[in-house]
Amino acid sequence: MTGFHVVGVQMPDGELNRMKTAKKVVADYLAITPEDVYIVWFCKTLQNWKALLSTDTMSNGIYFEVTYNGDKDELYFDHYQKVLNRAYTVVRTAAA
User: Fold this and answer.
1) Span between the terminal Cα atoms of the chain, in Å
2) Core-most of 4, 49, 89, 90, by most CB within 10 Å?
3) How confident is the model at residue 1 (pLDDT cuts 50, 70, 90)?
4) What is the pTM of this model?
């Protein structure tokens, strides 16, 4: 995915539009449609928001993070790949 560059992302107000913007950023990066991208988690706090996204078009543990910094009016894009997923059994003990 070389050469990915976004300048002046258009982002209308409203939570649904924030989610659409996040999906579009990922879709543009992967050269797929926004309908192929789904939101795993979304949170808005004050003027900032963050979305974790993924797609079923790739089955290699890749996920994406789109963060909006309302103070700087900047959108950040991160691409991650899951390296390890391990389960642990929790052993409960009585409280002291």
Assistant:
1) 53
2) 49
3) very low
4) 0.77
- 11-66 pLDDT tens trace: 656 666 889 999 999 999 999 999 999 999 999 999 999 999 999 887 788 999 99
What are φ and ψ of residue 22, in 5° steps? Answer: -60, -45
Consecutive H or E run containing 76? strand 74-81
Tokens of 50: 């963050």
One CATH from 3.40.50, 2.40.50, 3.30.420, 3.10.450 for 15-81: 3.10.450
Domain boundaries, the chain: 15-81
Within the chain, residue ranges assigned H as helices are 15-30
Q: Which residue, among 61, 39, 62, has the nearest Cα to 52 in the 3D structure?
A: 39
